[in-house]
Amino acid sequence: MRKRIGKRLLAAAAVIMAAVCLFASACATAPRKNTAAFFDYFDTVITLTVYSNDAALVKRAKEEAEACFSRLNALFDIYNEYEGVANLASVNRRAGETVKVDPDIIALVSAGKRYYETTRGALNIAMGAVLKLWHDCRTAAEADPENASPPDPAALEEASKHCDIDNVVIGEGELTLLDPAMSLDVGAIGKGYAADRAAEKLDALGAPFMLNCGGAVLTNGKKPDGSDWIAGISDPAGEGGFIAEVPVSGAALSTSGSYLRCFTVGGKRYGHIIDPATLFPAEGTESVSVLVPGFSAMDADALSTACFILGRDGGEALVSAFGGASALFALPSGERAYTSGFPGR
Ligand code: AMP
Ligand code: MG
What homologous superfamily is domain 33-82+185-338 in, according to CATH? Predict the structure, then answer.
């Protein structure tokens, strides 16, 4: 009897040992989580997470992502020109002339014209003249908050006469702004476009990744252990917490919020997303997050900005007309509104 118990114990111990060994070897080979952050592009923080034990692959992923953001940041910059690069700042400065530009500028501007149609003019990348007045007031307010003021309504009205998207003419590798007083501002879609291009490079390396480019998040599937990637949506009230934690495996999520870039005059907050109908900051929501299935951070980026401008009703209609997209609206009342299909609804 004693002998038999001993044998059983030995057998059980052997099974446990085998399980422990299996677990240990699984842990040893489980892909490691690697993270990187870039601070010099698109006026935002970009973070990359890659699961892999291959140090060379991880290094390449970081280098390729950074090279992509660096190149597109220079091309899409509307404030600075760079030696030997015809970027959007050059196009704006040379409004009235035809400028030879990189295919990525043509692709971005073509997308901008399409979004103007799908959003019925709410998203207008040709609104640079109006957006510049707001940008200048915000910059001045940051430097001297005591003397902050919104732009003069007459100046806004005058600038709005130079925002006709039909005056943006795309040729074979060249771009013409027909109105010399107009300018482009691609702040609503540029970072999403760049995230998509970086994601294509990262996906080709074959490792699971998550990219977060200033609130535009995308992934290429699930995590190696089969669980979902989760993106937190910040509380627009600024309490530091999340209002939702959203699975974003194989999808793109973008959040637009007025609390992110704004200035205050006499207790009134002026955000950075401008309603073309009023030429003043849109105020219907505190933040809007849009989830799009597949690999399109630019669609999510465009839709979240447009939904912010259109507000809950117009935004819901826009999102439901856009195959598979869904949205979460954080309203000024503190209420949350979801369109069908948004996780956790
Ligand atoms: P996002 O952070 O993606 O929501 O984009 C906000 C940025 O989009 C602003 O900082 C402006 O550069 C730009 N923007 C603001 N209002 C509009 C608008 N109505 N149409 C196009 N771009 C806009
Ligand atoms: Mg956007």
Answer: ApbE-like domains (3.10.520.10)
Per-domain boundaries in the chain: 33-82+185-338
Model confidence at 124: pLDDT above 50: yes
pTM: 0.91
Of 132, 198, 189, 192, nearest in space to 159 by CA:
132
Give the pLDDT confidence of 94-114 residue by residue, as tens digits. Answer: 999 999 999 999 999 999 999
Q: How far is the CA of 188 from the centre of ligand 2 (A)?
A: 4
Please classify residue 80 by burial: count the beta carbons closer than 10 Å to its beta carbon, then call 0-12 exposed, 13-18 middle and 19+ buried. exposed
Residue list, ligand 1 pocket, CB within 6 Å: 123-125, 127, 131, 185, 187-188, 256, 272-274, 276, 301, 304-305, 309
Ligand 1, atom nearest to 308 Cα: 4
Residue 106: its H or E element: helix 103-118
Average pLDDT of the chain is: 91
Ion ligand 2 neighbours, Cβ < 5 Å: 188, 301, 305
Residue 305 Cα to ligand 1 midpoint, Å, equals 6
Contacting residues for 114 by C-beta, under 8 A, at least 6 apart: none
Q: What is the pLDDT of residue 28?
A: 59
